[in-house]
Amino acid sequence: MAIITASTTQTDVKLILPVCAVALGLILFSLSAGHLFLRDWPGTVEVTKNAVMERKKGVTVLDRQIAYEALSANPSGRAQVSGGMMAYRAAEEAGLTSPDGLYWLQQAINALERAVARAPANTEAWTWLAAARFGLEGPSGAAVQATDLSIQTGRHTTVSGPLQMAMANVLWARLSEASQLAVNETILKRWRVPGVRHQFAPIIFDNNGAYFVNRALEGDTVASAEFMAWFKEKTQRRLREVRQARKRRDQAPP
After folding, report:
1. 186-197: b (≥16 Cβ within 10 Å) or e
2. Up-side HSE of residue 118: CA atoms within 13 Å toward CB?
3. What pLDDT sits at residue 35?
4. For residues 179 and 168, what is the distance between their CA atoms, to the nearest angstrom?
5. For residues 70 and 52, what is the distance between their CA atoms, to the nearest angstrom?
6. What DSSP string describes 35-75?
7. Beta carbons within 8 Å of 244's beta carbon, 6+ residues apart
8. How far is it, in rounded angstroms, from Cα 32 to Cα 246?
9. Which tens digits make up the pLDDT trace of 172-200?
10. Could you tell me the CA-to-CA distances from 223 to 21, 184, 215 in Å, in that order?
11. Quick one: which of 93, 94, 187, 97 has its CA closest to 134?
12. Nearest to 203 by CA among 242, 231, 237
């Protein structure tokens, strides 16, 4: 954090004030608009879309239980990761704090712990394990450890990128310094590739996510300015979608 001292020049103040204003604006917007985009947990768009698709396909609780047991019986790490992901999605659809949701979160943890035992460098498994731990236990030491390991094993991959960033955001203060540096480096590298900027969309409206991303970019004035313009466009689009949804709801017959 910049500190203005008696020796600070007028030019320094002119440079500092806009940066502070941007950061404050991001925080205030996230707090004021957050109720429009609130979810059970700062999960990802991918998770939500999968849950919706499963409902459309008519997937039942029994279907999931049978599939989960089949995957659990398969000794491969890939099957255990798939089982853990499926259980997490079931928990999300049931509601993460409901009895069914808590049950599925525990099943997800069981499968994903088997996965990381078989493949300790599996970034995807650590990422989903962190999400399941956080969903069941909140910011526990186990959730922080899984997030750290997810980041440290996945510095050069985009697998589970949005979910990794969401977990890093909510647990930021408790992550290791090495993980914080890795996250900031990853955000900057990904932002510089326009084709993967969509990965930031799922997190910018939850838990001061916009500030979380912009903080990693603040050392690059061009990247930070680009992000601010992109964030403004995404915000305007999201607000239009919310208004349109409310209008359709209000106009729907009783």
Report:
1. bbbebbeeeeee
2. 16
3. 36
4. 9
5. 23
6. GGS--SSS--HHHHHHHHHHHHTT--HHHHHHHHHHHHH--
7. none
8. 18
9. 999 999 999 989 988 998 899 888 888 88
10. 17, 13, 11
11. 97
12. 231
Place of tokens 């099957």: 79
DSSP H helical ranges for the chain: 10-33, 45-56, 61-73, 77-94, 99-118, 123-137, 141-153, 161-170, 177-191, 209-217, 221-251
Q: Domain 25-246 falls in which CATH fold?
A: 1.25.40
Q: Which tokens sit at 141? A: 């030491």
- Please give the C-alpha separations between residue 103 and each of 58, 93, 109, 193, in angstroms, as whole numbers: 21, 12, 10, 39
User: d(Cα 11, Cα 17) in Å, to the nearest integer?
Assistant: 10
Q: How confident is the model at residue 252 (pLDDT cuts 50, 70, 90)?
A: confident
In this structure, what token pair is assigned to residue 179?
């993980």
Task: Average the pLDDT over 227-251 and give the result.
Answer: 92
Do the Cβ atoms of 172 and 132 come closer than 8 Å? no
The length of the chain, given as a count of residues: 254
CA-based torsion, 188, 191, 197, 203: positive or negative: positive
- Residues 6+ positions from 159 with CB-CB distance below 8 Å: 123, 124, 127
Task: Encode pLDDT of 50-93 as tens digits.
Answer: 443 444 455 566 677 777 788 878 888 888 999 999 999 999 88
pTM, whole model, 2 decimals?
0.70
User: Three-class SS of residue 182?
Assistant: helix
Give the residue carrying structure tokens 């916009």: 210
